[in-house]
Amino acid sequence: MAYDEELAQRVADLLAGEPGVTSRKMFGGLGFMVDDHMAVAAASDGSLMVRADPTDAEAWVDGTSVAPMEMRGRPMTGWLLVSAEGLDDDDLLRLWVDRGVAFVRTLPPK
Question: Residue 16: which residues within 8 A CB-CB, separation 6 or more?
């Protein structure tokens, strides 16, 4: 199944004009890279994978719309999965995209 194109366009609109942003299809989603680090990715089910500082990520998990990211049953430290229901408001989507971008901007260049 392909990524959620509507969500991907909403993310692309938010990142328009942001320096160093590219997008790349991966893992069935569309990843948005900032200076070659993936910040967020639109998934096929309308959810958003968000790169987060591991020290902050745990506090943002709410058990409802925000969960730790797992891939093939293994936890992915520093990644969160925000459900589609947690993104229906543009301000909430901006919050999560901004969090992902802010964190990857702290990483060393690739």
Answer: none
For the domain bounded by 5-104, which CATH number is listed? 3.90.1150.30
- 94: helix, coil or strand? helix
Q: Where are the domains of the chain?
A: 5-104
- pLDDT tens column, 25-78: 987 899 999 999 999 999 989 999 999 999 999 999 998 999 999 888 898 999
Quote the CA–CA distance of 65 and 68 in Å, as a whole number. Answer: 10
Q: Is the pTM of this model over 0.85?
A: yes
- Pairing between strand 29-34 and 21-26? antiparallel
Instruction: For residue 98, count other CB atoms closer than 10 A to its CB.
Output: 16
**In this structure, what token pair is assigned to residue 39?**
């910040």
DSSP string, 80-92: EEE-GGGGSSHHH
